[in-house]
Amino acid sequence: MSDTEDGETDAEASPNATGVDEGDAGRERGRIAAAAEDERWPLLSLVRDGGRGNLRWIGAGAASSVAAQFISNLDMFIVGLAFDAMFNGKGYALPLVPAGWIPADPTGMLAFTVALLVGLKVVDMTFGIFAEYALFLFAQRTLHRIRVDAFDRVQRLDMGFFDTQQTGEVMSVLNNDVNSLERFLEVGPNLGVVAVSMFASSVVYMALLNWRLALISLAAAPLLLAANVWFGARHEARNDDVREETGILNALLETNISGIQTVKAFGGEDYETERVTDQSAAHRTANWRAHMVGVGHQPALRLIAGAAFVATLFVGTEWAIDSRFWVFPGTITAGELVPFMYYTQQLVMPVRFLAWVTGLYKAATSSAKRILGVQRIEPPREEGRTELDDPEGRVEYDGVSFSYPGTDERVLHGIDLDVRPGETVGLVGETGAGKSTLLKLLQAYYDPDEGAVRVDGTETREITRESLRTSIGYVAQDPFLFTGTIRENIAYPVDDATDAEVEAAAREAGAHEFIADLDEGYDAEVGERGVMLSGGQRQRIAIARVLLADPPMLVFDEATSHVDNRTEVLIQRSLDAVTEDRTTFVVAHRLSTVRDADRIVVVDGGRIVEQGTHEELLDRDGKYADLWKVQVGAVGT
Fold first, then answer.
1. Which CATH number does the domain housing residue 223 bear?
2. Phi and psi at residue 416, in whole multiples of 5°?
3. Is residue 359 domain-resident?
4. Is 593 part of a structural domain of the chain?
5. Phi (first) and psi of residue 227, to 5 degrees
6. How many domains does the chain have?
7. pTM for the full model?
8. Which domain holds residue 278?
9. Of 155, 164, 185, 196, which Cα lies nearest the Cα of 65?
């Protein structure tokens, strides 16, 4: 059960909080990505925002990578000139190098060439190392900001988003999709720059060697571009499918593991395995179809580039043998042809790199759509600007009516309630009556459809949510504990609480006795979601957490439902002292919990039907009296 009242169904507390069935999954599929469909360049937009303040690093890294590739490819150009000078009697002239530096004899030329190539390689490596450093630094800083921003955004979305969205789907965005971005940002920019600069430098040196032959080699470039675009479009479509299937599978796994006790109780292992098998098969098919696009991508580009290489080899060789080729006059020397063929072969490697980068880019684009979708789906309601400083604790419900987002069914109808500062109010009623919903409106998880909820005369929608919620201590029916120690859970989120303060809060909550009996005491691990503790122990720790925070208002939503009668009495005695000067709401199914409340409010069908003290309501012999008779076994007597 979620944090709802006395077994109150999640349909009342939040429309789809228990998960989405197979039909709902189909309707929900793609909802996150669809929120960013209007973004033309989702990856660029995400990286631009995430990389703000660090874009200089990608610029410096790209420039260094370009310099490294041009210097790296310069060696074969120099080797060709040296060969022609040493063996064909041609002049040995290099740009930016004074003629007097170059020896005239072949042995001296060879030594000079070797020394020059070693020096260029040192410069090449220096630029390459800096490029790797700068681009990786940009990638990690950008990923850090994107990851944190996405997580922060998810935390701040309204409760309506979580009512209808599966946890596993959201986790898929924060984990799988961010990891997909990581793969692209760590490899893609550097590899893409390397591919482009390698291609560009090869073309430049080919043109310097023989621009006519270069035109023949580059005749295949439009075909390469067209093939890359064609395969790229299919990469994106197939990766969209993979991301969606991954989200659905993660949601199914998360739901099943979270509900493992129910699965085992009903012997549902085979049924759940069949469901996971079917969804895993769908995920496998989507991955296979995406992989098959990649299987054909690189070979197709290599085939086109290979054809260009063979054509260049044939033309260049014929030209060197016949001293002319077709309408092209003159000749081409071996010192020009050998480097030229090297550069032609170099055109194949950038094509392979671009195919790889295209696949990574399209996968990252699919992930970027979903991350942007989380940031843009269901924008949070406008934040109030009034700070709730030192509130007295007067709470008013003025004609409040409410339906959960996405539903037409009214949960509350014209609620009027005025709670004095320091008053303790018990909320009772049958399952699904609307008791927990009243408190969710007080905490501004939702805004009323009609009417207003006020604290100290100010509407909750006008109060900053942080100041409002930190002013209200909340203990749920099934409280959530974080993985960690008992001490860390009691102190959450106050990280500077002393051991004495933590222990004092535990004593007030009636938790110190059982904590002291544990081998590790306050340093004992609670397990995931507090699984190492009983329901009553989790509740007492949650109560201690609230007492340590010391808020001016308290909400106990069936906070003693999982404890025995003795423990309830101990907790109640502590709470009586704690709540004496605080406005307190107590939702209860066990009516003994609210018997001593200043006022008991009876909710039925989303309406307040009775108010008064325990004795007054019994004398009235209405709805409350009926509930009391059922609990004490007086029905029919």
1. 1.20.1560.10
2. -125, 125
3. yes
4. no
5. -65, -40
6. 1
7. 0.64
8. 35-376
9. 196
